[in-house]
Structures are given as C-alpha cells and as structure tokens.
C-alpha cells in the first residue's frame, strides 16, 4: 500500500489509523518535518493534532486561512479575538491552521509542491496517532463547457493523456500509481451541493496537468506551438467530455491518500478563453464555493459523530 491511509476494514468500522509505509521511520529518534517547520522532538504531536478528523488542503495560504475563519464561524468555534495563528510560522513554504478537529493547509502550485506537503502531513497525522481522517482538496480549476463558478467533485483524476494514473520516477524507474478517489465520499459531497442549491455542482473526471499554460492547451503563455483549432480539438476530445475540469494537483493527491475528495470550482470556460478576466470580487466569490460545500459536509458529519 502506498497511500497514507489504512485500507483495512470498511468505512463503518471505526478507528482507521493513518499508515506510513516506510520501515526506516521506526529507527529515527526524531522526525523533522522540514517544510512545515515542525518536529517530533519539540512538539507534542498527539496533544497538538491528535483530535484531527478533517484536513482541508488548497493552493493558497490566504484561502486556507479564510477557510479556517469560515468553518470556525459555521461550527460555533470562533476565537473571540479572531486569532488563528499559522502553525507553520517560521517557514513561508506552507501555511497551516487548526480549529477544533479541522486542519487546513496550503499546498502551493503543482504536483511536486503538493507531494512534499503530503509526505509531511501524512507523517504528522501518523505521529499524532490520528484515526478516521478525511482529507479534501478545496481548489480552483479551468472548466470545459461549464458555466464559470460551477463546482466539480472529482470522480477520478486523469492525466493529460486522459489516463487514470500518476507516474513518478523512483530510483530511475517509472512507477505508476492509481488515482482512484473515494466514490462514496464524492457522492456525499455531490449530495451536499444539491442540498445547498446555492450553485451548480457536478461530478466528473478531473484532468491533472504538469503546467498551467502549454500543459493545459493555453494560447496565452510565453510560448505556444499550436493553433486555436488544435487547442479546441484537444479540449473537446471525446474522452475530454467526461473530464469537465483541469487543475494541477489531483493525481498525486489521489495517489498518496485514501478517503479523500477533490472539490474544485471552475474559474472560466476554457472553450471560450484562457485569461482570468473576471473581477477580483467574482473570483473571490467563486473560490468560496468549495469551502461552503465542504463546510456543509463537515457540519453534517460532526453532527452524526
Ligand atoms: C489550480 O489553480 C492553480 C493554478 O492557477 C493550480 O494550483 C491549480 O491546480
Ligand atoms: N487552475 C488551473 O489549473 N487551470 C485553470 O484554468 C484555472 C485554475
């Protein structure tokens, strides 16, 4: 098993521990989570993080702080002083916030940035002896043939060749890992979107690319070697119609974690353009949608615990 989550038992069985799959960790006296600026020698992980049940990850530090403020308000866990300190203070690689059983962490742009954060996050949850943790990526994406502002819950993450795989070179050899996500969790999140009825929510395959410009068939990068017609053909490929949105982290996220979901809002329709031309206000309101949907899901779950 590669992922950081136990696949033993089913969802109804309680106490699903976080698993690491690395025999070398046992012999380490201390573990330094370098990019999070945390270590097991000077922090009591079980005390600080042992109650975590939900982890929300997203690209920007600012968005993850705003999610913490939002969810704190929704759950009545607001800090009267409105202070949510950055747990990763001392590094500007990632930002982390915690309120009640919810941890919120930024992951930056792209697969390598997400991967480094996930290695350290999974070890953090393992050292903290957390159980039954659900992780959701709340992010942004480009839509294909969707009204901007639509929220897409990912069924499966596919690569730029429309294949459900995540490839990584380990010791000079290509290792291929599956990008299956938890279907039941995706359906529950879709249902939350329907219950809220505040914005369009759909389910589909999300394409994960290595680049924002040529990698996503944009015509507005510094370099471009194809025509508008070739771009449109690529985006409207038959396989692509089952993939309503494009982003840059879902594949490694799906490959490394189980009991996870990806919820991304579409910021624009890529069949109509490439530039992010909506106002800051509109963009801001779109970016709140995955937070609202995931917040609704967390509230429902916490009521049933
Ligand atoms: C969505 O938006 C970012 C690029 O602007 C990237 O992190 C992603 O997946
Ligand atoms: N994020 C992406 O990766 N692509 C887009 O088009 C918009 C957001």
UniProtKB/TrEMBL annotation:
Binding-site residues, substrate: 216, 218
GO biological process per UniProt: nucleotide catabolic process; uridine catabolic process
Entry-linked Pfam families: PNP_UDP_1 (PF01048)
Residue ranges occupied by any Nucleoside phosphorylase domain in the UniProt entry: 53-266
InterPro entries assigned to the protein according to its UniProt record, in alphabetical order: Nucleoside_phosphorylase_d, Nucleoside_phosphorylase_sf, Uridine_phosphorylase_euk
SUPFAM superfamilies (alphabetical): Purine and uridine phosphorylases
GO MF assignments: uridine phosphorylase activity
GO-annotated cellular components: cytosol
Listed name of the protein: Nucleoside phosphorylase domain-containing protein
Organism, as annotated: Ameiurus melas (Black bullhead)
Species classification: Eukaryota, Metazoa, Chordata, Craniata, Vertebrata
């Amino acid at each position: 098993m590669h992922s950081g989550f136990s696949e033993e038992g089913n969802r109804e069985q309680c106490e699903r521990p976080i698993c690491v799959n690395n025999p070398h960790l046992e012999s380490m006296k201390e573990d330094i989570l370098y990019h999070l600026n945390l270590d097991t020698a000077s922090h009591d992980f079980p005390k600080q993080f042992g109650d975590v049940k939900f982890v929300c990850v997203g690209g920007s530090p600012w968005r993850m702080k705003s999610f913490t403020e939002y969810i704190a308000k929704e759950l009545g866990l607001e800090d009267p002083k409105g202070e949510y300190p950055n747990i990763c203070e001392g590094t500007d690689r990632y930002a982390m916030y915690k309120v009640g059983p919810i941890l919120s962490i930024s992951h930056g742009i792209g697969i390598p940035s997400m991967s480094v954060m996930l290695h350290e996050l999974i070890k953090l949850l393992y050292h903290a002896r957390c159980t039954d943790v659900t992780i959701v990526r709340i992010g942004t994406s480009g839509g294909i043939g969707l009204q901007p502002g639509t929220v897409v819950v990912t069924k499966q993450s596919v690569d730029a060749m429309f294949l459900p795989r995540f490839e990584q070179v380990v010791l000079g050899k290509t290792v291929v890992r599956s990008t299956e996500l938890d279907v039941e969790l995706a359906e529950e999140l879709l249902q939350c979107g329907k219950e809220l009825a505040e914005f369009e929510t759909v389910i589909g395959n999300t394409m994960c690319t290595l680049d924002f410009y040529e990698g996503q068939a944009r015509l507005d990068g510094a370099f471009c070697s194809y025509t508008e017609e070739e771009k449109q053909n690529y985006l409207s490929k038959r396989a692509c119609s089952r993939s309503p949105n494009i982003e840059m982290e879902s594949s490694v996220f799906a490959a490394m974690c189980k009991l996870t979901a990806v919820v991304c809002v579409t910021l624009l329709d890529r069949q109509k353009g490439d530039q992010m031309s909506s106002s800051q206000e509109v963009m801001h309101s779109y970016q709140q949608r995955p937070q609202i949907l995931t917040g609704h899901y967390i509230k429902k779950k916490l009521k049933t615990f």
